[in-house]
Amino acid sequence: QGFSIEVSQDKNFDTVIWDSGMTASPLNLAVYQGPELHPFTRYWWKVTVSAASGKKTESQPAEFETGMMGMHNWQGSWISDHNSREHKPAPYFRKEFKVERKVRSARAYIAVGGLYELYINGERIGNHRLDPMYTRYDRRNLYVTHDVTAQIQNGANAVGVILGNGWYNHQSGAVWDFDNAPWRNRPAFCMDIRIEYENGDIEVVTT
What we know:
five-stranded antiparallel sheet; four-stranded antiparallel sheet; 13 strands
């Protein structure tokens, strides 16, 4: 018969920012039409379905979290080891930082020209291979978000990144001319580790 969607800034739905109202539609896709969402913010949503009999069924709340939502929100800089693109060994990077307050949440946002593996305190972050996905690097670069709350420890921390060539710096000739791609260069990356403390303060560890 119809459905309604609610989006809230809290899991108890005390702060509902958008209520679609009961909508009679055969479509299984709906477009959010509430106020502009904020970056780095968690939202909760649920659906209520109304049957022809008038009975209503409410889903369990689910959540989503927004990311950068704009280049202006990046704080880190693109870095590389500045070797020639013909240099074979993979670039390794390491940075130390200290955390001296209780962490509520932490996210690592990493954009890469090429491929990467990310480590925090010696632990590999994520289980994907060949991230991020190939794109036209001279037009856009993709980034990946990792929840690293559990890996950030009180006191001394160290983050490490290993880069790979991928399609960004293709080494083999005669593969659709990717060795002559206009973007080809030594692998590089940009990363922000955004730490939110229990008191609400935000600290960003950057490249």
